[in-house]
């Protein structure tokens, strides 16, 4: 399960008036995934723009916008769990020329910025995450949510990004699995209406050419 949640686009949709995140693979988005892995340093040191989020055209009203929020401070993997350890590092979250948002040093709600839905009702965005100094090797956990600006749509349930900075992939997998087991409620307690099954995404996963 952890291996399936490494860097790549996540899906986004509206189900029963709630913003829902999901898994994305080969043009198919399956709602319900709330843990996403990412690797710093694949393009530039201490940087990644994965995971992005995508949707099929017509998913969101036009015009409308979607905002991300940071729901607390980073946590650092302690070798067997994420606990109360807040690292010195922060993550800067940017998008093009917009002023970046820094993750907080305490567990405070930190609003992000707003990005418009495309003219065809699709929302495909890759936020830009940069690990700040001292940018030590480790695995970092960030909790976020997404919310649209339409009054009838509820914000997404919290989701988690598990960032790997130069640690072995077996350790990254273990951290992702721990979050799934310990932080994500079961579908019954979360109240997600996921029986609708997968929804198709017209855009295939973005491919990169790496040296």
Description of the structure:
The protein is mainly beta and 211 residues long. Helix content is 9%, strand content 36%. The chain contains two helices and 15 strands. The strands form three sheets. Strands 4, 7, 8, 11, 13 and 14 form a six-stranded mixed beta sheet that branches. The protein is globular, with a radius of gyration of 16 Å. The two termini are 28 Å apart.
Unreliable stretches: 1-7, 188-211
Structural class: mainly beta
Total strands = 15
Instruction: Spell the H/E element sequence.
Output: EEEEEEEEEEEEEEHHE
Q: What share of the residues does DSSP label as strand, in percent? A: 35-45%
Largest sheet: 6 strands, mixed
Average per-residue pLDDT, rounded, comes to 82
Summed up, the helix count is 2
What overall geometry do the principal axes of the alpha carbons give? globular
Helix content: under 10%
What Rg do the Cα atoms give? 16 Å
Span of the ends, CA to CA? 28 Å
Topology of helices and strands:
Layout: E1 10-15, E2 18-25, E3 28-31, E4 35-39, E5 47-48, E6 53-54, E7 65-70, E8 75-76, E9 91-95, E10 98-102, E11 110-116, E12 128-131, E13 138-148, E14 159-165, H1 169-182, H2 187-190, E15 199-200
Parallel strand pairs: 1-6, 4-14
Antiparallel strand pairs: 1-2, 2-3, 3-15, 5-12, 7-11, 7-13, 8-13, 9-10, 9-12, 13-14
């Amino acid at each position: 399960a952890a291996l399936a949640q490494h860097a790549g686009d996540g899906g986004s949709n509206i189900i029963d008036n709630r913003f829902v995140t999901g898994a994305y693979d080969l043009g198919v988005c399956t709602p319900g995934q709330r843990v996403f892995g990412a690797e710093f340093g694949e393009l530039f040191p201490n940087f990644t723009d994965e995971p992005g989020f995508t949707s099929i055209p017509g998913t969101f009203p036009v015009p409308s916008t979607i905002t991300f929020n940071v729901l607390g401070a980073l946590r650092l993997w302690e070798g067997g769990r994420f606990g109360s350890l807040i690292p010195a590092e922060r993550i800067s979250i940017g998008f093009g020329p917009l002023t970046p948002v820094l993750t907080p040093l305490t567990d405070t709600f930190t609003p992000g910025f707003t990005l418009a839905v495309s003219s065809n009702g699709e929302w495909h965005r890759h936020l830009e995450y940069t690990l700040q100094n001292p940018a030590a090797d480790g695995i970092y956990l960030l909790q976020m949510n997404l919310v649209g600006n339409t009054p009838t749509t509820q914000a997404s349930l919290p989701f988690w990004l598990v960032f790997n900075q130069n640690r072995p992939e077996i350790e990254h997998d273990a951290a992702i699995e721990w979050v799934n087991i310990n932080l994500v409620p079961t579908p019954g307690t979360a109240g997600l209406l996921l029986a609708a099954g997968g929804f198709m995404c017209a855009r295939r996963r973005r491919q990169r050419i790496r040296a």
